[in-house]
Amino acid sequence: MNINSDNLVKWLFETNAIRVCPQNKPFWYTSGTIGPYFINTHFLYGSEEKANKLLKLIDAEKENIFSCPIKVLDETLQNYESDKIYRALIDQMTDYIKSNINIDEVDFISGGERRDWFFSLVIAKLLNKPHITIYKDMTSVISQDGKVEEVNNLNGKNVLHIADLITEASSYERAWIPAISNKGGNIKWSVVVVDRKQGGEKVLSNYNVKSFAMVGIDVNLFTRVLHMGMISDKQFEMIDEYMKNPKDSMARFLKENPDFIEQALNSDDKTKERAKLMLEKNIYEL
Questions:
Q1: Which of 26, 27, 83, 259 could form a disulfide with 34, with the two C-beta atoms 3.0–4.6 Å apart?
Q2: Does 114 sit behind a cis peptide bond, omega within 30 degrees of 0 on the bond before it?
Q3: How far is 276 from 107, CA to CA, in rounded Å?
Q4: Which of 22, 10, 17 is nearest to 234 (CA)?
Q5: CB of 34 within 8 A of CB of 5?
Q6: Strand, coil or helix: what is 208?
Q7: What is the CATH number of the domain that holds 182?
Q8: How far is CA 251 from the centre of its chain?
Q9: pTM of this prediction?
Q10: Is it the case that residue 2 has pLDDT exceeding 90?
Q11: φ and ψ at 19, to 5 degrees?
């Protein structure tokens, strides 16, 4: 972690970018599993409301691949000027990049659809580097100083990819790395706000990409959060057990709290569907 990581940890919790569940009330995940925390790194844009507003703008504009980067950059720059947390985070990320990577070796900065753009476009502007906007279908455009053009040949140029978070690096493998390599470029570095510590760094190393993260999601992080008074002892215990063995710890929780699944099945539609998925897959072998 870098020098000002305590501030970053505070911002993650202040904006609900990391949410820890109340005691004995784990969150339902899309996969049908349950767990003690949620991560929405893009909430560091200032708040959930602000982040959702930017996502709506992106969804409305992304069909026009040439105007989208300009409009998203304009929006993020305005927020950079007005939101203290977002501005401080972007400044910290920019300093972090300068401290860990030789900027003179970076020819382009890239970001992938959609949440990477919360960070990559404005940082490219601050570092005075052309930005490669990568779409999910691997279409890509270069933008700088209000000019946008489709990527043709990158001629062996070096690219720094900036993302909101990395889990297993599946988006890198599926789209971001091939989108750049297919055009003759090389993603040499990756900088993310959050590394979920689920193997992404190792995957990137297989592609000769050097991986950097502002903060890693591990027990040390939550130990610090506990000492900072932002979670309780009971919340920390659940997280600690989960990190040691996600499946066994949550299976044990469900056996000790038999009403939890029944309550989920009588809850809102989203929760109900996730609970049904868990039962259909027999994820916890109850």
A1: 26
A2: yes
A3: 48
A4: 22
A5: no
A6: coil
A7: 3.40.50.2020
A8: 27
A9: 0.94
A10: no
A11: -120, 135
Torsion sign, CA atoms 29, 113, 193, 209: positive
Asked if residue 45 belongs to a domain, the reply is no
Residues 53/46, Cβ–Cβ less than 8 Å: no
The residue type of 258 is P
- Joined together, the tokens standing for residue 166 give 């990395």
Q: Is 96 in contact with 8 (CB distance < 8 Å)?
A: no
- Residue type, position 250, single letter: M
CA distance linking residue 153 with residue 169, whole number of Å: 25
Burial class for 113, CB neighbours closer than 10 Å (0-12, 13-18, 19+): buried
Tell me the one-letter amino acid at 49.
E
The residues, any chain, with a CB within 8 Å of residue 114's CB and separated by 6 or more, are: 55, 58, 59, 62
DSSP annotation of 26 reads P
Residue 276 near residue 31 (C-beta atoms within 8 A): no
| Range of the structural domain that residue 268 is part of | 5-40+220-281
Lookup: tokens for 5:
């990581």
49: in domain: no
Residues 168, 82, single domain; the answer is yes
pLDDT tens by residue, 33-66: 999 999 999 999 999 999 999 999 999 999 999 9
